[in-house]
Design a protein that fits this description.
β5 (101-103) and β6 (108-112) form a beta hairpin. α13 (263-283) packs antiparallel against α14 (316-330). The strands form 3 sheets. A 5-stranded mixed β-sheet has the order 5-6-1-7-8. The chain is 39% helix and 20% strand. The chain has helices at 15-23, 50-53, 63-69, 80-94, 117-120, 123-138, 150-159, 173-177, 190-198, 204-208, 212-219, 222-231, 263-283, 316-330, 368-388, 402-405, and strands at residues 7-12, 32-35, 45-48, 74-76, 101-103, 108-112, 142-147, 165-167, 249-260, 286-297, 302-313, 343-355. The protein is of the alpha+beta class.
């Protein structure tokens, strides 16, 4: 069967845990999860194997919660360089069949096999060959969804994890896709799901059959995007292998080892994150015009706030200043100065990026001499860290609670999934 358009979405199941099992096969026989130590900053589950899944272990829950479900759970500390190496090996196989492979994180990718039909024939059979090669050559299992657009291909890769292979066509998509819960649709997060449910919209079919005007009233311009996705009207292209995405924002986040209960706690975390964001901006030769913060409490409720600044920056103390200003304005406190909500996950992001240039227009309302001194100081900090290690130099404020601030967000690859809407 010849396809007018054939998009594959591949997902390396339980990526971190599966790679650890591939490197050490004995791990397949015990409940195992990849995560940090309970005494350190990343005491959460990053990935679990199938045996651990049987105990109800969930990604992103604390190790303490996981141990309650499975006292014999084996925790393996992450080996990020191994994960990067093997996920690239997987994508190298994809690239043998098409020049359109678009990564979606380390473990997922879209593959466009439309034009590959002229060489490799039936794209469904071709996808199966790719899946088998990854299993045979690398010892890894990928789930694949095949469809006529990226959104439904992504749905397909999540449908049947046992066989790891689903095909959604223009003839069967209503039967397969419409009964699924609305939160299965790509980019629909928890808040969007709750809003949809509150308006009597529970399935993807409900979204597809809803009036666009009603969805626009609920979600603004994103309402029509939801409707188009649900109906399969997605014509987004899979990017070329060598097509670099324009960097639109830089950010780092952390799930803290304990609850953040006052502004002193937030200030310490913010300093570490601000320095990381500033260094990453300098490395890509960018400055930011918008700074944003995101905080999530221990009830998994979150808020995000941002501010456009008068002078673009890649200096940590300026990023820190704006982040704290946003925190002071938006976090509710009790009379004793403690927060009304206790926060765990914190993120700082910088966006509306522009090229960093040696030519900087002087601003009468900013102390440019101090800016240059601070820039020189930060460069000195970064040279020391690059040569001797992240922990060899730090600001005194982070020493107030070394257990809380003992993390390196730039190099630890801490990732928190975010929804589109």
């Amino acid at each position: 069967m010849k396809w007018d358009r054939c998009i594959v979405h591949s997902d390396l199941n339980h990526c971190y845990a599966q790679i650890e099992e591939m490197l050490c096969p004995d791990l397949r026989n015990v409940p195992m999860a990849v995560g940090g130590s309970e005494e350190s900053r990343h005491g959460i589950i990053l990935a679990k194997n199938d045996v651990a899944k049987e105990y109800g272990i969930k990604t992103a829950e604390s190790l303490r919660e996981a141990y309650k479900k499975c006292p014999k759970l084996l925790i393996v500390h992450p080996h990020y360089q191994e994960y990067i190496y093997y996920t690239e090996k997987v994508k190298d196989i994809y690239r043998e069949y098409t020049d359109r492979v678009e990564s979606f994180g380390l473990d997922e990718a879209w593959i466009d096999l439309t034009d590959s039909q002229a060489i490799f024939g039936d794209p469904v059979k071709c996808a199966k060959v790719i899946q088998n090669r990854i299993a045979d050559e690398l010892g890894l299992k990928v789930s694949m969804g095949i469809s006529f657009n990226k959104i439904f291909a992504k749905l397909g890769s999540d449908m049947d994890k046992e066989s790891g292979f689903s095909v959604i066509t223009k003839h069967n998509y209503k039967e397969l896709v419409y009964p699924l819960p609305c939160e299965e649709l790509l980019f629909v997060g928890r808040a969007t799901k709750e809003k949809l449910n509150a308006n009597g919209i529970y399935t993807i079919g409900d979204i597809a059959n809803c009036e666009i005007s009603h969805l626009n009233n609920l979600f603004g311009k994103n309402g029509e995007m939801l409707w188009r996705f649900a109906n399969g009207y997605d014509d987004t292209l899979v990017k070329h292998n060598d097509e670099k995405r324009e960097v639109k924002s830089v950010g780092n986040g952390i799930t803290a080892i304990r609850d953040l209960v006052n502004f002193n706690d937030v200030r310490m975390i913010f300093w570490v994150l601000s320095e990381s964001v500033a260094q990453r901006l300098k490395e890509i030769n960018k400055r930011a015009n918008v700074i944003s913060i995101s905080l999530r409490n221990n009830k998994l409720e979150s808020f995000t706030r941002q501010k456009k600044i008068s002078e673009s920056t890649n200096l940590s103390y300026e990023i820190m200043h704006v982040a704290m200003e946003l925190a002071y304005k938006n976090i509710e406190v009790n009379k004793d100065g403690t927060f009304k909500d206790k926060y765990r996950t914190v993120t700082i992001s910088a966006s509306k990026l522009e090229d960093d240039s040696d030519i900087i227009q002087m601003n009468l309302f900013i102390d440019e001499i101090r800016r240059r001194k601070d820039a020189d100081l930060e460069r000195a900090f970064e040279k020391v860290r690059n040569k001797y290690g992240h922990d060899k130099i730090c600001r005194l404020v982070v020493k107030m609670d070394e257990q809380l601030t003992d993390f390196n967000p730039k190099d630890d690859h801490v990732i928190h999934p975010e929804s589109w809407f």
